[in-house]
Amino acid sequence: xxxxxxxxISKIIKDFDVxxxxxKKLTNLYIKSMKGGLESSVSTHDYMPMIPTFITNLPTGxxxxxxxxxxLGGTSFRCLYLSLKGNSKYxxxxxxxxxxxxxxxxxxxxxxxxxxxxxxxKKILPFVKNLHQKENFKQYxxxxxxxxxxxxxxxxxxxxxxxxxxxxxxxxxxxxxxFLLQQSLDKYLKRDYAExxxxxxxxxxxxxxxxxxxxxxxxxxxxxxxVVDPIMSIICGTGFNVAYIEDMKNIKKFQPExxxxxxxxxxxxxxxxxxxxxxxxxxxxxxxxxxDDIIDKExxxxxxxxxxKRISGMFLGEILRLVLVDLVEHNILTKPATEKLYTxxxxxxxxxxxIEIDDSKELKETQLYLNQALDLKTTPAxxxxxxxITRAISRRSAYFVSVPISAIIISTGRLDENSAKYKYHQExxxxxxxxxxxxxxxxxxxVRHGLAIGExxxxxxxxxxxxxxxxxxxxxxxxxxxxxxx
Length: 486
Ligand code: BGC
What we know:
Distance between the termini: 68 Å
Radius of gyration: 23 Å
Bound molecules: beta-D-glucopyranose
């Protein structure tokens, strides 16, 4: 490889670099953005949405209940029936469907507001009818995990701010998601299930990240001698987001009557869905490579979720694909014979996870994967460079994940001896879910490294447990429903 090609590649790698100074600046901006979002009742481009979820207690593991849970992800839908056993354990039965492409992306953009919810109701009702033959309840409580930014007014009312992944159905934006689901359920219950004698009440709307915090708290088990508090959850899969538990007194955007009601119920804390994907949408501190700019411009939500576009599994493969296109355009790599390399999202993040740890002779495995996905032929020297680029992209993603962790721990005073939230010997549990944090090789370790070189430092980093929560979206929605009083 010529020296000018090597220089060009070194520059690309440098553009993805994140150092300690940048992590600290981002952490301080994040703390500012949290405060702004907790104060501002209108969603602005300047702060994260910081959505109150109306969940005021984390589960203890002692809960006992039987509930329905539904989970709408970017491409699939699941319906579960959960029996919470009260000993941090649960049993479930579930069914899963892939959402037909008619509802997704541009194909579904012009559908009427009830179309998707009618589809969901037609999946939920036969599932419940089948259950009903055994359980025979008059009314079933349902918790709905909806993994998109929703402005919540109550546990069972929330309007969609915007779609982020998978869907683009315009008519649903600004509408109450629970109302739409309940309306479709009631319509088909009346029409097709009148004789079955059961009702379904949608009692809770939960984001997947909120659900992950609930499920982590329900299932987490430490001895009484361990001082471990569940405080935060992270989803890092197709999308990226963070939820945590905040003092009510810091959530300044409540309407006075809502605040008074919550106080009268004895609420002192509430889970906040931060929608961290939208951190620093103004690019005040967040760096941007030319590849990030292309991804944003060509996305369904340009100007929004810029942090997510540098972190989550939906985008890591796409970032590397755009780098490879750039290298072909600069004659550093040979142009493939087919168009695959030029197809958007043709490179899945899973491929990067193989390249990341490829130690085969001459990186033959990398050759196999690049050839299969993009018809790209490379020399061993080129593959080594591609591996370095891959590692720079994933490292940037993981280091960025350390930013909200540090910022939330600092701003909530968890490790500050003068704060009411501090406990002697305290360790902090972060419940995680999502394919990237679960399966990308070395990812959790890179997040920890980000914590150590960032604002928290090595002493703070050693207090953190990063654990994988069990089915945050399913169990979490069930726990949210169990917390509802009907
Ligand atoms: C959504 C969040 C969600 C996250 C993880 C993001 O795109 O805005 O609401 O929690 O993905 O699924």
